[in-house]
Design brief:
The protein has 287 residues and is of the alpha+beta class.
């Protein structure tokens, strides 16, 4: 019997390396200039993806879910370390019909199908919130590296849609991305502890599943860095393998985004490649 070769080996014990990505970024024809731009840069942005009424309704849902007594100890509510401030609300597409209707109206599903060349399902969803004065940072990482190692996603045939519920400005912790880095796979070093997600979801400087500072610096020199700002209602769709991060928010201006991950139905999850137990379903749904 021939065993399948893992082309995205990570969490290595030796020195990690940067390798060329063997799979395409776009899994369909590149006839549309917007889709070609996605293939080249790893992301696209659209203004006005949802209207003001849906923005207000989603913000009300953030407050309702985050402060509901029944959700106080729910593991899907992630709070800032040492604080009661909400950092993320997972499974938001299941917890709120209002949020899911906003996602459906945004065009994100159709765009994901075009990029991934197949039907899609929601691998993960969350509301990311950076309250004024208390919003923590998200360190540089590739989402696919985590989803491959800890969830068993075979290939980087997934993309994420981030829909802004508040203005994303240069000063309140917006998404930063290194355009072009989706074309590489950046190995990470270190063994994955069991239940590591309990630490990594709240840490601003995780120890496992992040590229080395040398690799981050090298890719920055090659590709530079884009700061993705926009008004409330704007949408950014980006490749699951692109290196991205966001700084903390010490301004009075909160930042809130709906974040939906679409995976191809032809990229079904297997057992985690790191050899660890499966993470909770709210982090990695299986169709």
């Amino acid at each position: 019997m021939t065993l399948a070769v893992d082309e995205y080996v990570t969490r290595v014990s030796g020195a990690p390396v940067i390798v060329d990505r063997p799979d395409p970024v776009v899994w369909s024809a590149l006839d549309d200039p917007e889709i070609q731009d996605f293939a080249d840069r790893g992301y696209i942005q659209r203004e006005g993806a949802i209207d003001n009424a849906r923005i207000d309704a989603c913000l009300e849902e953030l407050q309702r879910i985050g402060h509901h007594p029944d959700m106080a100890d729910d593991p899907r509510i992630i709070r800032e370390a040492g604080s009661e401030a909400v950092r993320s609300i997972f499974d938001v597409h299941l917890l709120s019909d209002v949020v899911w209707e906003a996602v459906e109206s945004s065009g994100a599903i159709e765009l994901a199908r075009e990029i991934l060349g197949s039907d899609v399902y929601v691998h993960q969803s969350r509301l990311n919130y950076k309250p004024g004065f208390a919003g923590g940072a998200f360190y540089w990482h590739s989402d696919f590296e985590t989803w491959h190692a800890e969830d068993g996603m075979p290939r980087p045939r997934a993309c994420s849609a981030s829909i802004a519920l508040t203005p994303n400005r240069t000063y309140n912790g917006p998404l930063m991305i290194m355009p072009g880095t989706q074309k590489y796979f950046v190995q990470c070093a270190g063994e994955t502890p069991e239940d590591y997600f309990k630490e990594s979801l709240v840490s601003t400087a995780p120890k496992v599943g992040v590229p080395s500072e040398e690799h981050i610096s090298e890719l920055y020199r090659r590709h530079g860095l884009d700061v993705l700002t926009g008004d409330a209602g704007a949408m950014t769709v980006f490749d699951c393998n692109a290196l991205h991060a966001s700084g903390g928010n010490i301004t009075p201006m909160p930042r809130a985004n709906v974040f939906i991950v679409f995976n191809s139905v032809d990229n079904a999850l297997v057992e985690p490649y790191a050899g660890t137990p499966r993470r909770p379903e709210f982090l990695a749904r299986r169709p």
